[in-house]
Amino acid sequence: MASDRADLVVVGAGTVGGWGSYFAATQGAQRVVVVERGRSGMGASSRAAGMVRAQGGTPTTVALGRWSIDFYRGQLARLGTDSGFRELGYLIFAETAEEARVGRERVAMQKAAGVDARWLEPDAAMELNPELARGSFVGASYLATDGCIDPPRNVLAYSLAMQQAGVELREHTTFVGLRTERAAGGSKLTGVLTSAGLIETSRAILTGGPTLCEVGNAAGVEIPAGAVRHQVAVTEPHPAFEVVRQAMGFDLGAGLYWRLEEGGLLFGMSNPDEPPGPSREIDWEYMDKMRSRLERYLPVTAGLGLRKAWAATIDYTPDHQPILGPALTRDGDRIEGVTIASAGGHGMMWGPAVAKISADLALEGRTEVADVDDLGLDRFDEQGRSRLATDPIALPFPTEVTWSTPAPRTR
Length: 411
What we know:
Blueprint: E1 8-11, H1 15-26, E2 32-36, E3 51-52, H2 59-79, E4 86-87, E5 90-94, H3 97-112, E6 118-120, H4 122-128, E7 139-143, E8 147-148, H5 151-165, E9 168-171, E10 175-183, E11 186-194, E12 197-200, E13 204-206, H6 212-219, E14 226-235, E15 248-251, E16 256-261, E17 264-269, H7 284-297, E18 306-316, E19 323-328, E20 334-342, H8 347-364
Parallel strand pairs: 1-2, 1-13, 2-9, 5-15, 11-20, 13-20
Antiparallel strand pairs: 3-8, 4-8, 5-7, 6-7, 10-11, 11-12, 14-17, 14-18, 15-16, 16-17, 19-20
C-alpha cells in the first residue's frame, strides 16, 4: 500500500477534485493524494453537456467563467493536451419586454466585470444562427467567446495532468471521515479516514458534486449541496448543423439549452417541478415536451431522430452559486485545514476556477481568481437557506436540499 502520509488529500476525482489536485501539486504541495470511491470522472463529470460561459448572473460568477475559459484555451500549450474547448458564442434569450430589460441590465454588469457581452435585437441574433424562428424571442444577450468542451476529453485531460504533476490517485477508496484534534476556536485536521485506512495529513479538500452532502455527513459537516436529474440528447445529423460555428442557445425561462454536436444538435434540460434526488432514468415525457419547445426556436429540429440520450445526476446549491471556504461543524466551529469545494452544478463552466480557488485556499488561505469571501458555508442558515440572492443565469434547479442523500428514483 502507498504511504499513509500526504501533504494534501483531495476527496473526489471529478472535475473539481481532479483539477484541484493538479493545481495543488504544481503550487508546492509535496505529496497530493486523491481518494475516489469509484473511478475517476465516472460521475457527473463524464456525463455533462460541456457548456461553458462567462455570461454569469453576478460579477463573481462572471469571473469564474472567464477564468475557466482562459484556462481551457491555454491547456494545450500548458499540458500538451486539452478539454476540447470550442468557441461558438452563446445567445441567452428573452421572451418578454421585462426579460429584455433585465437582460440589458445583466449585460451592463457583465461589461463592468470585464467581458465583452452585447445585447442583440432578433435580426442580429439570427445572423449568428439563421435557423432561429423569427418571433420566437424579443432579444438576446450574446458573448462571442463562450463555448463548450468535450466532457469525457476533459476527464482525460485532468487525469493526464494529475499524472504529470505526480498526484497519487486511489480509486475504489471510500472517504469515511476526518480525524481531528482540538484547537483554538474549534478543531484542526490530523488525518483523513478511508476504507483503506488512515492518511495522515493537515490539509484536505472535500469535493463530490451530487454526493457532496454525503461526503459532508461523513465529515460531520452539513453541506447544502443537492442532487437532481438532468437530461441531455443529441439529434441525428442535419445540414443546418454541419457547420464549424453556430451560436449556442439558452431558453432561460424553460431551462433548455443547445449547441452543435457531431453534425447534429445537442440539447439539455432540467425539470423545475421535479423533486430532488439521484436519478438514472430518462423521463421521455418531459424530453418530448422540451423537444416541442426546441422546435419553437429551431423549426429545423422537427422530426429529427435522436442519436443518443442520457440522464445524469448533477449537483446544485440553493442559491445556484459555488461553495468555497472552510469546513464548519454542525455547531459552527471551523475545522482548520479542511476546504469545501462545490461548483454548484456548473462543473464544466466553473470547474477549473473552482478547483484553482480550492487549491489556493487549502495551501495559502487566499485566492486572486475571484472574490469568494461570501461563498462559504456560513452563508447558509440551519435550514440550508442562503443569505445571498440566487444567481439568475442557471438551470431551474430546486431551491431546497435535504441533509441526507435520498434513495435513487426510478422515474
